[in-house]
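In this supplementary section we document a worked example of the pipeline. Step one takes a protein sequence of length 222 as its only input; no multiple sequence alignment statistics are reported here. Step two produces a three-dimensional model, which step three serialises into structure tokens for compact storage. The input and output of this example are shown verbatim.
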Amino acid sequence: MAKHSLMGRLMKRLHPESIPWPGSVLYNAISSTVIFQRHYQMVADDILNYCSSGTLLDIGTGPARLLLTLHNKSPQLRLLGIDSSPAMVAKAKENTSGVQSIEIKDGNADKIPYPDNYFDIVISTVSMHHWKHPTEGLNEAYRVLKPGGFVLVYDLVSDTPETILADCKRQFGWFRTTLFWLHSFEEPFYSQADFQSMAQPTLFKIGQTKFLGLLYCLILKK
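The serialised model returned by step three reads:
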């Protein structure tokens, strides 16, 4: 995997893997804004192109907004989310209360609390930059994924092209896009090159990447 700068490595070391309270309350509020909701819609549509039925795992589910979007678009999916933050798990359970097809558990990327070959698809959205051990996390995703299934990892990157930013500004306005993008300076996001080399040291060996709105996506197949 490509090497981070000294500052990037320091941020990665110091950055918490889970979001504690009251950060979970703030993130829950932010995740309901227009630009986040539009991206959840785009991500959900993209996920359903790879898998529209069966069992899905969301690693680092946060407040579970994406799981709710997926449920509304494809009620036949069984949706499971894990998060390493007890505060986020509590908020996700609150947000999904009454939705029987959604299950939320404590768990992190490098120790997924499910058996081998269990999921039809595994996803993660704006979470991977929090993982302390990304290679181990992707290997865990490989373990719990059924043969032929996909892992889709969506995250912001530190070097978003100007053309992507300009397109998002046209859709969402300068202010909303700038707030969303400035997030990449305060958190240890990977670069495009990091993402492109992420699969090589894992059991997947190879992967593909693409932009989806402001999010960069790593596509892996077992």
